[in-house]
Amino acid sequence: MATITKSHKRTSPTPSKEEMQRAYVFDSLLSIQKCTKRKLIETYEDQCERTCGDNVFASTIRFMQDKFNAPIEIERSGNQYFYYYTDKTYRLPVLVVKESTLQSAKILRNLCSTFKGTPLYDSFRILEIMEESPIKNPMTLPLTDRKDGDASDVPDFSSLKSSFVFLDNYQEEIDAQVWEKVLKAISEKKTITFTYNKTDKDISERLVEPYQLIFSKNIWYLWCKEIPKDDYRVFSLRKIENIRTKNKTFILPPGYDCRNHGSNEFGPYYIENGEEWSFKIRFREKAIQRVLGHNLGKDIKEEWDGDDLILSFTNSNYWPVMELVMALNAWGALAIPLEPECFVKDWKETVRNMAKSAEIM
DSSP label at 111? Predict the structure, then answer.
């Protein structure tokens, strides 16, 4: 038995279509049986109608090892050498993508958390499979040619396009260069400068350490620390222009995560180290199904009073909870704050001001 020595020669970062085809043909055979070089070459030539010389064969074996960590060994039997996988469960990944594409897919998975519990969300299991794959350097996988009739078993889902309706349609346009440079700076932990157009009359230059991208209420934000103010700030991504990456790197400070700060800007989710309030709110029957879909906070307790549901919970985001209450009350008195006292007082004041604006009082 002999182990194939891996070559230190660098292979192309983007393999050719033919090389990927050879790798997948070899993989399909080695996963089920020991094969001679001649068997591997002939199978490839028969299936793909292309030739494969000895040098090309050796290059493909090295490619499978170097880029996919394929556990290939050879074994001598008489005058013949047999290639085989030492790990019988190993297979080449079905899908190979660029690292930047994988990062974008991970972001989409987080955005699709709304669909947890549905098969639509479960489809993102492919990301976990790819993350657990033996590939160290993801690459682009060229599409293989299809012969006429090969796609007959592929269902046509184009007719379903109008069957999925997203009423909260995201249409904010982000400059591609801004997006890529911010993402790269976050990944490499490098400071950036940019022009921030808060308004037409309020334009300023900023120097920041970029920490996180936040998606809230159909808007992308950059969570960062501004230098030299040494203050955490939030900037709308679409208002950023002329972004430039500096050579200076930074170390993520303890507690840098935006969820560790009491920002009231991003909705009624729980923030670990922010100031907490203990809320108690009565929800009428028509509001119950709507409110149960929200992440109100932690330590949630339910209490039924007839058809009403009284929810108690803790949350460090004060005003977003008020925003939720007012949104439900736009359809009538569907949410009645009970605690804390300051929250009840602010709610009543808001209702009074609305009544005055409507000339009811």
Answer: H
Nearest C-alpha neighbor of 317 from the set 297, 302, 299? 297
The encoded tokens of residue 151 equal 């796609």
Record the tokens describing residue 237, joined without a space: 């991504």
Pairing of strands 335-339, 35-36: unpaired
* 43 CA to centre of own chain: 39
Contact in structure between 141 and 96 (CB atoms under 8 Å):
yes
Alpha-carbon distances of 186 from 85, 165, 180, 189, 261, rounded to whole Å? 39, 33, 10, 5, 19
Q: Other C-beta atoms within 10 Å of 230: how many?
A: 9
For residue 124, name the pLDDT band (cuts at 50, 70, 90). Answer: low
As to burial, measured by CB atoms within 10 angstroms (0-12 exposed, 13-18 middle, 19+ buried), residue 201 is exposed
Lowest mean pLDDT among 113-117, 200-204, 213-217, 270-274: 270-274
pLDDT for 272: 44
8 Å CB contact between 4 and 75: no
Strand 72-77 and strand 202-216: pairing?
unpaired
d(CA 99, CA 123): 19
| φ/ψ of residue 62, rounded to 5 | -65, -40
Do β-strands 190-199 and 72-77 pair in parallel, antiparallel, or remain unpaired?
unpaired
Model confidence band, residue 139 (pLDDT cutoffs 50, 70, 90): very low
pTM: 0.47
- 44 near 50, Cβ under 8 Å? yes
* Contact (CB, 8 A) for 31 and 91: yes
